[in-house]
User: What shape does this take?
Amino acid sequence: MEKKNRPIQQAANSDIRTSDITPTTSPVQVPKRTPKKHRARVYMLRTGVEGWTENDILRYCRLSSGRNYASELERQLDIQLERIDEKNPDGIGAHLRYRFSCRGDVLKVIQLVNHNAAINEHHGLSQQDITDILNLYPDAFNAA
Assistant: This one.
């Protein structure tokens, strides 16, 4: 028995992956996606004195391994984040809440974010963003 040509089935079984997105006719280049580290760091800055948890990074930034972003900041900038042990709402286990120890650490992170944004050619923090973030951390802020 002769098999009939089944183009739909053949395409589905082929190993060639083609894009279903039609290229734009506009010569304007699509802006780069904001890097993961940038999104995580900006979120950390915007949490203010309340701080953030690993689950917050997952929930609001859609990034896993929230503790890695905090640990990397500590290593890169030679800062120490405050870690607060919090019980889970269900009473089983606990997780860590991180927050910046002082306003100086916040300024270091802001500088890092803008420095990396300039290098990688994506949007950094505007002066208004920086002012809003610094208003979340009082002048006398010292978590420890």
